[in-house]
Amino acid sequence: NAGVTQTPKFRVLKTGQSMTLLCAQDMNHEYMYWYRQDPGMGLRLIHYSVGEGTTAKGEVPDGYNVSRLKKQNFLLGLESAAPSQTSVYFCASSYSGTFSYEQYFGPGTRLTVT
Amino acid sequence: EDKVVQSPLSLVVHEGDTVTLNCSYEVTNFRSLLWYKQEKKAPTFLFMLTSSGIEKKSGRLSSILDKKELFSILNITATQTGDSAIYLCAVPGANSKLTFGKGITLSVRP
Q1: Mapping DSSP to helix (H, G, I), strand (E, B) and coil, where does residue A85 land?
Q2: Beta-sheet pairing, A19-25 with A31-37
Q3: Among A8, A11, A91, B101, which is least packed by CB within 10 angstroms?
Q4: Residue B32 and residue A101: Cβ atoms within 8 Å?
Q5: Which of chain A's residues have a Cβ under 8 Å away from the Cβ of B100?
Q6: Which of B61, B84, B62, B75 is nearest to B13 (CA)?
Q7: What residues form DSSP beta bridges with B66?
Q8: Which of A40, A45, A58 sits opposite B102 (nearest CB)?
């Protein structure tokens, strides 16, 4: 049982390049989330999904797109990377329902945009 | 918009000290409050609190919620260097989205 996994772990991009971050979970969770974490800023929600085929915007969605074609996978895309997107990206998943708010986090992807 | 404020933002103590970490919140519809510990990598879950006055405890860590005054505290007794981490507080909103505070960086010196 791997939990939540993320690939890649590290990536360096040049301004204007594109990339996709992959998140996978094997816990059969309905809900999945993408966060970014910057020093002194806590975790900020980029996009989330409440089920296969659904996505919604979070607090800081600009410059990112997502897709949830399969229940176990949640992809985060950067179409044209900017230095402001240098950050650590975390994926998380959780059960649906009103009593299961705990989110399970992946190990993170450290992205640097030069 | 839900809001979470943690204090202090950073703290340096010596092994054996007791520390109290604070979290205050404003939410439209309170469901619960969660504490996470983050070392080098992913945040790991510590506690979820839903009722006022009921202490949750795990070893040297304990936490309590005050729904009237809208805050929670996380206590760590007899601190160890392994307690050095960022401690995050969060409240869930619609669709279980979590709003996080900025985190408290705790450094425990030998």
Answers
A1: helix
A2: unpaired
A3: A8
A4: yes
A5: 42-44
A6: B84
A7: B71
A8: A40
**Of B28, B17, B20, nearest to B89 (Cα)?**
B20
Chain A CB contacts of B44 below 8 Å: 105
Give residue A95's identity as a one-letter amino acid code: Y
User: Which whole-number Å values give the CA distances from B34 to A3, B14, B80, B110, in the listed order?
Assistant: 20, 26, 22, 29
**Angle, alpha carbons B55-B104-B32 (nearest 5°):** 40
Phi, psi of B94 (to 5 degrees): -60, 145
Q: In chain B, which residues have their Cβ closer than 8 Å to the Cβ of A91?
A: none
Q: Please, what is the average pLDDT of chain A?
A: 94
Across the interface, whether the CB atoms of A50 and B95 are under 8 A apart is answered: yes
A76: nearest Cα among A102, A48, A50: A48
Question: Residue B71 in contact with residue B23, Cβ under 8 Å?
Answer: yes
Q: Each residue of B75-105: pLDDT tens digit?
A: 999 999 999 999 999 999 887 889 999 999 9
